[in-house]
Amino acid sequence: MRFRRGGVPPARTVPAGGDYPLHDNRHTACSRWVMGGVPLAAVGKYVGHSSIQMTMRYAHLMPGGNILANQVIDSFYANAAQGEVQTDTRTDTSRSVSFP
User: Which of 34, 45, 70, 94 could form a disulfide with 58 if both were Cys (CB 3.0 to 4.6 A apart)?
Assistant: First the structure.
C-alpha cells in the first residue's frame, strides 16, 4: 500500500487482502465522531441508525464518560466519612406490617 505525504492512503487503494468493505469507513467515522465529543444521538442520526442501541456500541469511546460517575461516588464517600451524608436507604423494621 502506498501512502501520500500526510500518511493517508489514496482513496482508491485497497489493502493487501483485496477486500475492503466500505462499511469499515462508516464504523471508523462513528468511532472518531464519538471520540471527538459528538453526542451519541447526533452520531446515530448522521449515519441513520434505526435505534439508539445500535449507536450505544460506540459509548465506550466517549471521552471522560466515567469521570462524572466517579466524581459523584467519590464525593459521596468523602462526605460519608465526615458524617455529613444521610440517606434514606434503611428500612424501619420496628413497625410490623400485617397482611390480610
Answer: 34
Identity of the residue numbered 24: D
Tens of pLDDT, residue by residue over 10-27, are 555 666 666 666 677 888
This prediction has a pTM of 0.50
Residue 2 near residue 13 (C-beta atoms within 8 A): yes
* Residues whose CB is less than 8 angstroms from the CB of residue 31 and which lie 6 or more positions away in sequence, other chains included: 58, 61
Place of cell 439508539: 52
Q: How is residue 83 annotated by DSSP?
A: T
Contact call for residues 1 and 15 (beta carbons, < 8 A): yes
C-beta neighbour count of 87 within 10 angstroms: 7
Q: Categorise residue 52: left if φ over 0, alpha if ψ from -120 to 50, beta otherwise.
A: alpha
- Which one-letter DSSP state was computed for residue 72? H
